[in-house]
């Protein structure tokens, strides 16, 4: 290493003395590389110029920093693309709105048709309240027979759970002018009236003085006024089911 540096140093001295680099370089081309290495120690400014000559292109890439700005332009381009796509979607939105209005009209028509169909199917022995339908086939039976009848029809013995349902059920009772038995009883525990699924009732419409369990009454009937009475379970009632 030292041997290579020494000749280079000599060469550099020859450079300074000759001050004619054109004549010096052709003859010392093989050593020029070593000169460059050694020259960097002696003549740093030249080495630096050489280095700057090479990095300049990198310097051009350095302005890639400014390419960060073009990046923002790229974003603008993408925004412009979104805007243009948004604008292009406007006709589609209008088309969708038109389709929705058409579907809404069709839906209203279907609702009207369904309402008419329900009236036809329910009249004169059924009432719809909320999502529940009360309906009777006009048959009669005691509690157990009525319960079985409703199960066979895919429903359950009528069990009004609120004022609206009780009023709906009352309509059928008044139409037929027959008392109906409800899907409510206190067979399991006296005085604890339950729905058929065992839940304690959350709504009741007892007539005054009821329930009185007179003679061990564990079933419930609805009178034409919509009021409830506890009664024995082997009476005969109008069978009204709920679906
Ligand atoms: Ca009872
Ligand atoms: Ca009673």
Automatic annotation (TrEMBL):
GO terms for cellular component: extracellular space. It is found in: Secreted. Residues 1-20 have a biased composition (Polar residues). Keywords: Disulfide bond, Hydroxylation, Lectin, Secreted, Signal. The keyword Cell membrane does not apply. It comes from the Eukaryota. One of its GO terms (biological process) is ossification. Residues 129-242 form the C-type lectin domain. Pfam families: Lectin_C, Surfac_D-trimer. One of its GO terms (molecular function) is growth factor activity. Residues 1-24, 44-94 are annotated as: Disordered. InterPro entries: C-type_lectin-like (IPR001304), C-type_lectin-like/link_sf (IPR016186), C-type_lectin_CS (IPR018378), CLec_Tetranectin-domain (IPR051663), CTDL_fold (IPR016187), Surfac_D-trimer (IPR015097). Its main location: secreted. This is C-type lectin domain-containing protein.
């Amino acid at each position: 290493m030292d041997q290579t540096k020494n000749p280079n140093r000599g060469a550099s001295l020859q450079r300074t003395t000759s001050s004619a680099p054109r004549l010096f370089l052709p003859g010392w081309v093989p050593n020029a590389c070593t000169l460059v290495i050694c020259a960097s120690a002696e003549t740093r400014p030249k080495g630096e110029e050489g280095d700057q000559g090479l990095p300049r292109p990198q310097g051009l890439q350095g302005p890639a920093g400014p390419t960060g700005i073009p990046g923002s332009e790229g974003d603008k381009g993408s925004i412009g693309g979104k805007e243009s796509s948004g604008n292009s979607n406007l006709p589609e939105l209008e088309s969708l709105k038109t389709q929705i209005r058409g579907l809404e009209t069709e839906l209203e028509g279907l609702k009207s048709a369904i309402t008419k169909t329900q009236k036809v199917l329910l009249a004169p022995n059924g009432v719809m309240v909320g999502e529940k339908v009360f309906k009777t086939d006009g048959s009669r039976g005691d509690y157990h027979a009525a319960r079985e009848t409703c199960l066979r029809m895919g429903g359950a013995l009528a069990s009004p759970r609120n004022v609206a349902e009780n009023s709906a059920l009352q309509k059928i009772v008044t139409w037929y002018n027959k008392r109906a038995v409800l899907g409510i009883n206190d067979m399991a525990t006296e005085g604890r009236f339950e729905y058929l699924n065992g839940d304690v009732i959350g709504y009741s419409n007892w007539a005054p003085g009821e329930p009185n369990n007179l003679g061990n009454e564990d079933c419930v009937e609805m009178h034409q006024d919509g009021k409830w009475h506890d009664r024995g379970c082997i009476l005969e009632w109008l069978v009204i089911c709920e679906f």
